[in-house]
Structures are given as C-alpha cells and as structure tokens.
C-alpha cells in the first residue's frame, strides 16, 4: 500500500499543539501504512543569540540536541501505542524555511503541523510557521488546530 518514498512527517517543538499534531499524524501513518518521521527545528533566533554571545559551538550543539530531545520525547509520548517513529530529524534555522526545504528534498512527505493559535494581528504581521509552510510548500501539509 505505501510507496517506499512516502512518509508522514510531523513538526515537533514540545508544545501541546505539536503533540496533538503528532497524535493525528501517527493515526494517519498507521491507517496508510507509511512510516512516521519526527522533525524538530532548533530556532534560528536562539541560534543567532548563542553565536553573538560567543558561546562555543559544542555548547550550541548541546543546546540544539537538548531542544530536539525534549521535542522528540513529547512527540513520542503522544504517539505511544499508535506507531513507533521511524526517524528523528533535527535541523537548525528558521523553522518555516527549514521545514519547506526538508519537504522539497523529500517529495513523498506529507507534513503535519500544530497551529499555535497566535492572535490574528500577530499572524497577519509576522505570519505563523504553519501559514508560511502552507504558502511555500509544494507538498501536502495538514495543519492541526484544536
């Protein structure tokens, strides 16, 4: 049923919204017999602050790994008993940009994202990660909101 290049990918950040998206993605992965991949992006704003403050690269890598571990652990808890994630991918940079680039490089991917529910004004002026991904991706994207 599943093509070897197809997969379900969920963006994880450790929030309740991403855990809800992870659970829905896991249900979809199970129903379609596709592997579930967890994707976390260590935000570029944090990365820039750490670089500017002169923190050694090894400490930056450690903080990024810790961010990923927390995000992946929350997602794995949400999908527990549904499917076992096939892969964990940790990227660094602007979350929307990194997610879109990941999707471009993995054409069989279907992305699930949690929507944080920012205020209308904030979404209109800054744009949310989910809105940016939907606008710029050429792959299927499901935005999960509660």
Automatic annotation (TrEMBL):
Stored InterPro entries? Rossmann-like_a/b/a_fold, Universal_stress_UspA, UspA
Q: Which Gene3D superfamilies match?
A: HUPs (3.40.50.620)
Family assignment? Belongs to the universal stress protein A family.
Identify the CDD domains for this entry: USP-like
* Organism of derivation: Marinobacter manganoxydans MnI7-9
Tell me the organism's taxonomic lineage.
Answer: Bacteria, Pseudomonadati, Pseudomonadota, Gammaproteobacteria, Pseudomonadales
Please give the Pfam families that the UniProt record associates with this protein: Usp
Please state what the protein is called: UspA domain-containing protein
The domain of life for this entry's organism is: Bacteria
Every UspA domain range: 6-144
């Amino acid at each position: 049923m599943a093509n070897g290049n197809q997969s379900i990918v969920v963006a994880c950040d450790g929030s309740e919204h991403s855990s809800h998206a992870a659970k829905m993605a896991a249900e979809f992965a199970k129903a379609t017999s596709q592997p579930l991949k967890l994707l976390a992006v260590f935000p570029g704003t944090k990365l820039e602050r750490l670089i500017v403050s002169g923190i050694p690269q090894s400490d930056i890598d450690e903080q990024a790994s810790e961010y990923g571990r927390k995000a992946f652990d929350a997602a794995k808890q949400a999908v527990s008993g549904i499917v076992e994630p096939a892969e964990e991918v940790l990227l660094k940079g602007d979350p929307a940009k990194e997610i879109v680039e990941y999707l471009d490089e993995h054409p069989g991917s279907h992305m699930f994202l949690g929507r944080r529910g920012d205020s209308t004004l904030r979404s209109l002026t800054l744009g949310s990660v989910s809105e940016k991904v939907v606008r710029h991706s050429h792959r299927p994207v499901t935005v999960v909101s509660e």
